[in-house]
Every structure is written in C-alpha cells, then in structure tokens.
Write a structure and sequence with these properties.
The protein is of the alpha/beta class and 330 residues long. Among the domains are: 50 residues, no CATH class; 179 residues, Lysozyme-like. The protein contains seven helices and eight strands. β4 and β5 form a beta hairpin. 21% of the residues are buried.
Length: 330
Amino acid sequence: MKKAYLVMLLLLITLLMACGTKGIAISQDEAMSIGSEADENSRITEIKLKVVPIVGNVLTEDNETLGGNERDAAKEQEQPVAVEKNQSAKQEMEEQIHNEAEKVSHASEKETSIKSESVDSKVVENEIDKENKEEDTYPQQKVLTGIASTDALLPEENSRERTTPITHVMMHFTSNVIGNPQSPYELEDTRTIFIDYGVSAHYLIGRNGEIYNLVPEDRVAFHAGKGDLPDYPHYQDQLNDYSIGIEVMAIGTKEEMQTMMSDSFYDSIDPAHIGYTDAQYASLKRLLDDILLRNPSIKKDRNHVVGHDEYAPGRKTDPGSLFDWSRIGF
C-alpha cells in the first residue's frame, strides 16, 4: 500500500514538472507529509479490519464489518434461524428420548418374556419330574405290545431272563376279595400280593378292560408253577419258561373258590364282582391277537392257549367255568 502511494506521488510530480504548472507544485517536505498521511491512513484501515469484531460473522461485499444498525438487523435476521435451530434440536432430543424409552420398554418386555419362559420352563420341568416320580413307582422296562396298555411293571425279582422260545399262553383269574371284599379289584392290592408272594404274570386285565403290563415278554414270569401238559412232557413244571401269563381280574364260582373262602363269605360278595365283563373279553381278544401276531411260534388253538386249571387240575381252578373261551375266538 505504501509503495502504491509513492508511485502515484512520483507520477503526479513528474506530470506537474512536465507541464510547468507552478501553482500546483509542492515541496519535497509536503510530498513526504502526504506520503506519511497516506501511510497512516493505510495502517488505520488495516487495524480496523483486524480489531473490530465481526457480529455474526457477516461481512459486506467489500469485506468491511457491518455497522451498529446493520448488526442489529443481522441479529434480527438470525433470531428466527436460532429459534428454528432450537426447535429442531428440541425435536431431535424428544425423538431421542422417545427412542430410548421404546428401547427400555422393549428390553423390559423381552426380560418379562424371558422370565415368563423361564417360569413356564420350570413348570414343565416340575411336571416332568412329577411324571418321572410317578413312573418310578414301577421299575420301567420295555414292554412290546401293539395295543394300548399301561405300565404297572413288577420288580425284576419277580421275573428272570428268558432263554427259551415262547410256545404257549396261559390264562388266570385273580382278585383281592379276601383282603378287600367291597373293592376286590384294586391294581395296587394285586401288585402287592404278587410282590409279597413272589409271583407274577406278563399282563393284567382290569374290570373295565384296562390292560396293564407287569413283566416284559422277553422275561420269564412266575405264574404256572407245578403241572404238565399231555403233549409236552418235557414242559412238566417248566411251563413258565415257554409261556406268556395273562391274569384277568375276576372271581369264579363258589365251588372254584372253596379252597380260599367259606360259603358264607362267598355269599357276601357283590354278584357284580363275580365272573367276567364284556370289556374284559374285548380287551383280552385284542391282546391275545397281538401276542400271537408277534409270536408266530404260538399256535392259535386250545393246545397252545390254555387255562391254569388245565395245566394243574385239582390244584388250580382258574380261569374257571365262568370263562367263555368262545368270546376270545376259541
């Protein structure tokens, strides 16, 4: 800037000297004074540009700061913008708070769901434990049967491993009429008798046709005892090893029960407890057909499907004369 003034001053002096104009001539001191003033004005302008604060960072096209009135006008223009910015920031904050609240809500719902699932899982586990405890009442073994049946398995001490082929089925009747004449067909009573006396059968059929699994067919049950079959002399006292035993909950005739009770006691028994039921015959036929299907070595005839009284006559009377063999296909 200083150099520009000096150049202009020198050009002016040269022009005056060339034109010979005396009235305009100035001395060297005056010229220096003019240069100094120019320098001073230049410095003042530079200082103003550096020191005066710029309100709102708004400059004119000449890069000069705005004056007081202009600054106020700029502030007024900036206020709506600031309000809009504040409102926008407030909305963003509200949205952020809303989003965080939703996250917390979802997290809470998820936690509640997890807790609920945990509770449901515990309930299921408790039910399974309960079922397992109920099943533990009877030692669980695999029973092969193609029809609906219920496990009521006897302890393994009431049977032994089978090593011989199955060729026969033996029919029996049983009850707890001596111990409980009013209700002689309770499952647990029958199981207790079998366990106490060390006897067993493979199946038990209840009064309403229920089929209970007592011993797996691949184990020998203790149901036949001593006896023999005319066509199988080598089976003498050994029929347990070659047979499947089926007990039916029933009571025979007075004559058939005389070895177990007096006539007066028999007469006190409810007639509904004597003999066999239609439901028992239906279930027995299904069970027998299933056994023969799975054991083809057992022939479907009266030489291979026999009564206990036929194997041990004079010692045993079951299933007795009240049992109708034709109801099961014979």
